[in-house]
Amino acid sequence: MSQSSGQHGFRVNWFLVGIVAAAVVASILPARGPMVPVVDDAVIVLVFLLFFLYGARLKPSETVAGIKHWRLHVTILVFTFVVFPIIGIALKLLVGWALPNMLYLGLLWVCLVPSTVQSSINFTSIAHGNIPGAIVSATISNLLGTFLTPLLAFALVSSSSGVTITPASILDVLLQILLPFILGQLSRPLTARFVTEHKKPLKFVDNGVILVVVYSAFSSGMREHIWSMTSIGQLALTIGICLVLLALMLWLTWAATGRLGFDRADRIAIQFCGTKKSLATGLPMATVLFAGQPIGLIVLPLMIFHMAQLIACGAISSRYARQWAAEHPEG
């Protein structure tokens, strides 16, 4: 996804601006009446396209070559799919009583989705971390997330939030997310050159799909009167929890990897890949998995966490870059 900072100075992240704008527009002018099925059908088609493109971009050879550094990848996957979900379950005890069910479900969902790909790699690159390791780990996280995230949701959501995920919902995920991903992989003999040569315009396609999904989710939320389901205090608590969760995971990934004996480059890759949560994967997957639920409220914590992680990791990667430059004056 688009990045909010580079090595020098601050840049406006227009993608984040677009996300906020889409949510605001949907709150003022939500899709209603005959526009509802049009927007809903567009989301189905665009999500299919999004995961087809993910599949078309992934080079199987890169994955095979990078898997050799298994300790790095296993560590990142443990943070993403074990540590995060455990914290998500613990949050039920800590704040479940203070939040409406759908907001807690949103926090749990943050803990279940896979890592980002592009921003994890970009921040690792800025910080002079292990770039090949980040590429492989973030890619594996997203690939496994296609299977693990729905399975974790199936196992944890109904017992933790009262929302039931039916086998039909899992089938929808397979048809709308896993199937296009596999088709994208199979299409690589025909599409690999095209997606490689058109990375920049295709990035706008990725971002555009997410903005449409955000608009759809918040339009649905307005029709379901989501803001009457919560209060300013509960929203403030949700934002605070997202910030504390991010800070905890940033500290934990750095402290634990130091104890485990990883070098600086690996620790940077683990920190950025093991703490990130993918809006690009989590948002469309939520619209499929939680169909019929107040999606706008459920995905709100993920949007908050996504914005916070880009801002925090942008600042951290810039600090690491300055440290690296001071230690390597020869460049």
Automatic annotation (TrEMBL):
One Pfam family this sequence matches:
SBF_like
Q: Which UniProt keywords apply?
A: Membrane, Transmembrane, Transmembrane helix
Q: Name one GO cellular component term.
A: plasma membrane
Q: Give TM regions.
A: 12-29, 35-54, 74-97, 103-123, 135-157, 163-183, 204-222, 234-256, 268-291
Q: Which PANTHER family match?
A: SODIUM_BILE ACID COTRANSPORTER 7, SOLUTE CARRIER FAMILY 10 MEMBER 7
Q: What is this protein called?
A: Sodium/bile acid symporter family protein
